[in-house]
Amino acid sequence: MSSPALAALAALPQADLKSIFTTDPDRLSKFTLTQGPIRFDWSKTHLTDGLFDGFLKLAEEKGFAGHRDALFAGEAVNNTEGRAAEHPAERGEGNADSVARAKMFHARMRALIDAIEGEALGPIRHILHIGIGGSALGPDLIVDALGGDGGRYDVAIVSNVDGTALERAISRFDPEATLIAVASKTFTTTETMLNAASAINWMVEAGVDDPYGRVIALTASPDKAIEWGVDETRVLPFAESVGGRYSLWSSIGFPAALALGWDAFESLLEGAAAMDRHFRLSDPRQNAPLIAAFVDQYYARVLGCQTRALFAYDERLRLLPSYLQQLEMESNGKSVTRDGTPVDGPTAPITWGGVGTDAQHAVFQLLHQGTILTPVEFIASIEPGHALDPAHHRALLVNCFAQGAALMRGKDNAADPARAYHGNRPSTTILLDDVTPEALGALIAFYEHRTFANAVLMGINPFDQFGVELGKEIARSIEAEGPKGFDPSTMALIDLALGGV
Ligand code: F6P
């Protein structure tokens, strides 16, 4: 670890969680914070007053306040691509011109939704949303979390180029009652364009009149969408300065706005805007995304934990782990700083997780007794998402809180080591009042800003993703020119499975 600031933090004595509430009786009030509908509890982590002060100093040294101001001012914080990162503008926060442009695009989306609801495109019952990565994970999470009662339309989100994904979706849809939303910031992504072409073919084969008349494009490249065949009136643009994995607030959120209703979509944006203001305006000592980033930095960079695990103790949030994998790993899985020099330590750990209580019966063994220290994050809601016997929700929450206590407390058993629990294992708990559009908007914005705060503390740019390009380039070259000059293993695999292509 070559950073002096991190070395100073590492030199601080490490607390033992088993006795931490005895040595620091005030830590519950010190290390919990309620922001709108969300309560954050870091009291069962190793955060101490000394570490907190050290991280505040690190944030100052790294120019945190300046970077945050630059983000909200719409400056080119994505320095390697010379672009701003204007997802907050989609929520009404940030540079005034960008906010005005986002509002105009939202008004256009709303008008099209009104037209669809008025059956201008026919009697639509099914929405086939085709996109991948940031153009799929956000809408999928929102529709799944908030549309549990079926929503107003039947929505399928298809991302994988594997035809099985599209085939499964369309097998349950009536082509005459389906709207295709092609979601792609660039409108060039191979998987999306192939799936979109196959979806059009499905409509053609089913005898649908004017299949292109049923296509909506959600994109920052309207010209490409028009060139592909989408009528200009059904292109819903968003700004180039909104990154793919930060784009669910833009027209990429179209299936959520249509299926859940415009009011719900607006509430989602308002919840996120409240978190934007909290992040932008509150003191670093009371700033949830920044404090969460301190905890992340401590485990990933000071203690060298290579993963962090999160478990949604709420079925409505079951897609949150995969959403956050893209957000955190595509943003902060980097090896160089903003100026291109090598980083001074580890960057983003691997984000993984699942849902409770299922995960307790699958992976928690390792968390309690394995040799790898993994900081855990629990996310739960006070209100249930169902009307069944309250015993269900009670059992869910009791299990969630019991796991955090067990990780921290452990259990000695000198006579039988196989039954001993180490304890001193950290967890954070994030408790929502309920999984409402506002709370979900605030929660996702919290994670976005936490990811940004982590990047600032590491001196990296979280808004590019060049690491995803090389594999795509090689795949394109194989398609275009056939396999040439690869290692024997790759040549043999191509030969065996594709007959040399
Ligand atoms: O491959 C990574 C990526 O560029 C993501 O960052 C992005 O969300 C996804 O591909 C989809 O890109 P697009 O929206 O341009 O189709």
Explained architecture:
By secondary structure, the chain is an alpha/beta fold. The chain folds into 3 domains: 32-82 and 270-464, Rossmann fold, CATH 3.40.50; 95-260, Rossmann fold, CATH 3.40.50; 467-498, no CATH class. The chain has 20 helices and 11 strands. The protein has helices at 4-11, 20-23, 27-30, 49-61, 64-73, 87-90, 96-117, 137-146, 163-171, 190-205, 222-228, 254-260, 262-281, 288-302, 320-332, 364-369, 391-409, 437-458, 469-481, 488-498; strands at residues 32-35, 38-41, 126-130, 154-158, 178-183, 215-219, 235-237, 307-313, 350-355, 376-381, 427-432. The strands form 2 sheets. Strands 1-2-11-10-8-9 form a 6-stranded mixed sheet, sandwiched between helices. Helix 8 packs parallel to helix 12. The longest helix is centred in the first third of the chain and has 22 residues, at 96-117. The chain starts with a helix and ends with a helix. The structure holds 6-O-phosphono-beta-D-fructofuranose (F6P). Residues 132-135, 184-186, 189, 192, 244-245, 330, 465, 468 line the site of 6-O-phosphono-beta-D-fructofuranose. GO terms for molecular function: carbohydrate derivative binding; glucose-6-phosphate isomerase activity; monosaccharide binding.
